[in-house]
Design goal:
Layout (H helix, E strand, L loop, with lengths): L1 H17 L6 E3 L3 E2 L6 H9 L1 H17 L7 H22 L9 H29 L5 H30 L11
Antiparallel strand pairs: 1-2
Amino acid sequence: MKQARRILLLLFCYLLVAIPFKVMEIIPGFTDIRPVTMLGPIFAVFYGVPGCGVMAVGNLIMDALSGSLRWSSIFGFAANFLGPFLIYLFWVHRSEEPFSLRSGRNILKHTLIVCLAAILEMILITPAVALFYPEVDAKLFALTVLLNTSVFPLIFGIPIMILMQEELGFRPLKKRKG
């Protein structure tokens, strides 16, 4: 029950950040300015797979609420899960050291993994949009996805993650022993 409440709280936070910006469309019905993407790394590092799931479900809910629910939303769902999941895998299962953004080296590592996750999301969603909706400018769409999923997590996500860990006492997930 505690896990369900946490997931609902994360989903509420997602919608609270996403809804006000839904009106800032780049390609109407397909993509917009998405500061909510800053939550992907935060949810991944501090909440793991459930946090990644919230990113996917939240995106799907926003597509439905805004009338943007399309066939390409299936790929958007997958990408919005897999991008944060890649960050989760790196920091929780692959990194030799626990998550911390106290050093320049770790900030660089985090920047690289966020950029890789952004590229993964762009590669997953853009071909689907181009295939199902050839009238959409695929290059502009790809650029928007790439910028949304890299710039917001780096510019806003990093300071929030530092604040959460250093000042508010949130503990990032870490590799289980054995």
